[in-house]
Amino acid sequence: MEHLKLILTNLPTSPGVYQFYNKDGKLLYIGKAKNLKSRVGSYFASSNSNSFKTRKLDKQIYDIKHIVVETEADALLLENNLIKQYQPKYN
Fold it and tell me: Contact 64/41 with Cβ under 8 angstroms?
């Protein structure tokens, strides 16, 4: 968990796409954000309102990667293309 806290601390507030990986390096989920730090951090905030799917995903996240883009629209396009290409389990 310390590894994830360090990643979260260093995420930019820029728009972009984030990718969650499990401990085996398998891509689990791809998402977009207008603020990467805020959006990715929201997965780890304690909340009972998260869906079953989100809670299950949270338990498997071992690594997070991100790609910064210029605009929220760019993030949407990139997210869509990456999901089509990799078809992660939780998308």
Answer: no
